[in-house]
Design goal:
The complex is a heterodimer of chains A (338) and B (411). Chain A is mainly alpha-helical. In chain A, 64% of the residues lie in helices and 9% in strands. A two-stranded antiparallel sheet of chain A has the order 1-2. A two-stranded antiparallel sheet of chain A has the order 3-4. In chain A, helix 4 runs antiparallel to helix 10. Chain B has 411 residues and is an alpha/beta fold. Helix content of chain B is 34%, strand content 20%. In chain B, helix 4 (142-158) crosses helix 7 (189-201), helix 7 crosses helix 9 and helix 9 packs parallel to helix 10 (250-267). Classes of the chains: A mainly alpha (338), B alpha/beta (411). The interface between A and B is large, with 27 and 44 residues.
Chain lengths: 338, 411
């Protein structure tokens, strides 16, 4: 499946342009941060510290107007004391309204986003690819039925569909124990990561259509290949032909689409958490929704920091996706939606 | 050869025939209309012989082959006919089944289920295709693909005609595992060894190393050999070779044909060789069917066709071969093209009449198949089998042109 030619193309594309390097750097960065979150994060992302709320990020200061009323000569006088709050090195991205470290929250948020992105995409692949391959390979009625089904689910705006499904199924979560904490390497960190399982299922079911369409398109052209006919002439069963002859040759666009879909699903997850449908409170989208109240009063960083994190990871994944697409198959256009 | 085995006796089968095809029709239902790609075709394939099917492009040769092994793709469909295949076990199994036609040891494959028909592909019928380059999956090694064919047959013979045995261990989860962990293949070591043996038998040097290579590392001739090896995996009774040498250059063609001939003799199997090359036919075949517009227009032994061609089409084909000994006479091409085979345009006439230099008034009726001079097998669908060409009754040359213009103005 991965031929020397593909590897050569990948290298060539990688060297010839800056974008794949940036993308790969970002993606690897996000993955390392997400995997080693307890070791990388300076604080426990859930520990509140009401003495240090709303600290600004490094390089910025914040002014606080402390207005107090005093009785002077029988009259009420208001005195405004202006204090300047400086950033602290131990909270490089500042703290949120409850004094939680923004950097640690962004680091832990990467875990949620990546988990949902990868698992959601896997689910979408597992549902979409078989449906698409069977539809494309069988053709005729089977194809019509399955693809109309896909069209129907495509007709719903994905966010609305996701919200509706979560409303139907509730916000179930699964606690995944943190191996680093369990091993005693990282003390004082949350002992488990909360995976919003409903969100994973919903984003998978919302996005399977893209995989079904791509897989169907590939299967449609591959089933006309002589070697498929030859395999049939030798008595191979349909499922074996799909598995051995169609799927391996359809992998390239599926891999490319999968990469792009991880980014799309991260965005969808953020949107869902922003709207409060996620079930976990350690998520970029959730932090943005918390931070939006503070933007008008000057604490812009609470919403901005997770926003930048989303932007960087999505850009990184898309750049890697473009790189793979250009290297693996110059013919296909990027397909996929949010 | 006794007289009873002739087609005219109309008994559905004869004991010596491995395969008897009767009135097989395949139609394609396209947007332009119904296309009669194969029209009431009848022929026999005997034990241990090479039957040649020859004709121009578009005469229905390949569709005939695909119809035999039930691989016609939509929008095509086998609409009528019988395909009698001799298999004593199969016949015994269906003897009491009313829905399946059984005649002595022969079973009509058009009446058995799809599953059974698929079960016969491989161990009973096998096919090699025109273009070896596109007949191998580029993402699997050649050895792997042959070994898979062996494995399919191995499992099939463990429990004959059971679909379960073939797919056993190859459910949906399995193909995901196979894709993610390619080393854990479906094929077993004996199958891989057998694949190397097969490669050796078809004359591929260093078969062990070549088995590990991908199709793009093979030359066209080598791949055609590999495809023959793959087709032999199931030790078929009947090998259908659809233009096996068309994509190859002349020296390689000769090698491949010799190989086919040797394997056929060695294994005692029957071969249907489809080609448009009369040279190949002359070199390889015992008997020949000449096809035109989806019909067999003339059939007979090699001598009948080459020495005593009766149908003007066969004569035309032979007239268009250059003769090295006598280069003087100009080659005589057959004017015009094979008709489009659209049902509505076909009508009831001899389909060759519009191109036939000897067309007569009687040719506007469908000619039945008649015995011709020569061996008992020799027959042709032409009035000239039992009468001479009479110039007085000739169709005017403009007859079909006029019909064509009428057709155009109708539109």
């Amino acid at each position: 499946m991965i031929s020397p030619r593909v590897i050569r193309n990948l290298k060539k594309q990688f060297r010839s342009s800056l974008l794949p390097k940036v993308g790969l750097l970002l993606v690897i960065g996000v993955i390392i941060v997400a995997v080693f979150a307890p070791l990388v994060a300076p604080h426990n992302p859930t520990t509140q510290n009401l003495d240090r709320t709303e600290l600004p990020p490094l390089g910025f200061t914040k002014t606080v107007n402390d207005t107090s009323a005093q009785m002077v000569d029988g009259e009420v006088e208001t005195v405004t004391e202006v204090t300047t709050v400086n950033a602290t090195l131990s909270y490089p991205l500042g703290t949120d309204g409850l004094g939680r470290d923004m950097l640690s929250r962004v680091i832990y948020g990467a875990r949620t986003s990546l988990l949902v992105g990868v698992l959601g995409t896997t689910l979408a692949v597992l549902v979409g690819v078989p449906v698409g391959l069977i539809a494309g390979y069988s053709g005729e009625t089977v194809d019509d039925v399955l693809m109309r089904l896909a069209d129907v689910s495509l007709a719903f705006p994905s966010l609305v569909l996701a919200v509706a499904l979560i409303g139907l199924w509730g916000r179930a979560t699964v606690s995944i124990p943190d191996p680093f904490v369990a091993a005693g390497v990282a003390s004082g960190m949350p002992p488990s990561t909360t995976l919003p399982i409903t969100v994973v299922i919903v984003v998978g079911l919302v996005n399977w259509v893209w995989f079904a369409r791509v897989a169907r398109g590939e299967a449609l052209s591959l089933r006309k290949q002589e070697y498929v006919k030859a395999a049939r002439a030798l008595g191979a069963s349909d499922i074996r032909i799909i598995g051995r002859h169609v799927l391996p040759n359809a992998m390239t666009p599926i891999i490319v689409l999968g990469t792009v879909q991880i980014a799309a699903i991260i965005l969808l997850e953020s949107a869902l958490s922003f709207l409060g449908f996620s079930g976990t409170t350690l998520s970029w989208g959730f932090d943005i929704s918390q931070g939006q109240d503070y933007v008008s009063s000057g604490q812009w960083w609470i919403a901005t920091m997770p926003g930048i994190a989303i932007m960087l990871s999505v850009i990184g994944i898309n750049l890697v996706g473009d790189w793979l697409r250009d290297a693996l198959d110059p013919d296909i256009e990027g397909e996929g939606g949010t | 050869m006794s007289r009873e085995t002739g087609i005219q006796s109309r008994s559905p089968t004869s004991a010596e025939a491995l395969l008897s095809v009767r009135d097989l029709s395949t139609r394609f239902f396209t947007e332009e209309g119904q296309i009669n790609a194969v029209e009431s075709l009848s022929f026999d394939v005997r034990n241990n012989e090479i039957l040649g099917i020859v004709g121009e492009s578009g005469s229905g040769k390949s569709v005939t082959a695909l119809s035999l092994i039930d691989l016609v793709e939509s929008p095509g469909r086998v609409t009528a006919g019988e395909v009698w295949y001799r298999d004593a076990d199969l016949a015994e199994e269906y003897r009491d089944d009313d829905s399946v036609a059984v005649d002595r040891d022969h079973v009509d494959l058009r009446t058995v289920s799809d599953r059974v028909r698929r079960g016969l592909r491989g161990p009973s019928f096998s096919m090699i295709f025109q273009d070896p380059m596109s007949s191998f999956n580029p993402s699997l090694t050649v050895g792997e693909q042959i070994a898979e064919a062996v494995e399919v047959q191995r499992r099939a013979s463990a429990t004959p005609r059971s679909t379960r045995a073939r797919t056993q261990g190859y459910g949906f989860g399995r193909f995901i595992v196979d894709t993610l962990v390619p080393s854990r293949g479906y094929v077993t070591t004996p199958s891989k060894e057998r694949a190397v043996e097969l490669l050796e038998q078809v004359g591929i040097p260093d078969p062990t190393e070549r088995a590990e290579e991908y199709p793009n590392q093979f030359s066209g001739g080598m791949l055609q050999r590999a495809m023959i090896a793959q087709a032999l995996a199931g030790e078929p009774d009947l090998l259908i070779a659809d233009e096996p040498t068309t994509a190859l250059d002349v020296t390689i063609q000769a090698q491949i044909l010799n190989l086919l001939r040797d394997i056929q003799t060695e294994r005692g199997m029957s071969v249907i060789l489809i080609t448009h090359d009369l040279g190949v036919i002359a070199r390889m075949c015992d008997r020949v069917c000449v096809m035109y517009a989806g019909e067999v227009v003339e059939r007979g032994s090699l001598d009948d066709i080459f020495e005593r061609p009766t149908h003007p089409y066969t004569q035309g084909l032979l007239g268009s071969i250059p003769d090295v000994q006598d280069p003087q006479p100009r080659l005589q091409p057959i004017e015009g093209n094979v008709p489009g085979l659209l049902d509505e345009e076909m009508g009831n006439r001899c389909y060759f009449a519009d191109r036939c230099p000897k067309a007569m008034d009687v040719c506007l009726e469908t000619p039945p198949e008649r015995d011709a001079r020569g061996s008992s097998d020799h027959a042709a669908k032409c009035v000239l089998t039992d009468r001479e060409y009479a110039p007085a009754e000739a169709l005017p040359e403009t007859h079909f042109e006029a019909a064509e213009t009428r057709g155009e103005t109708d539109e």
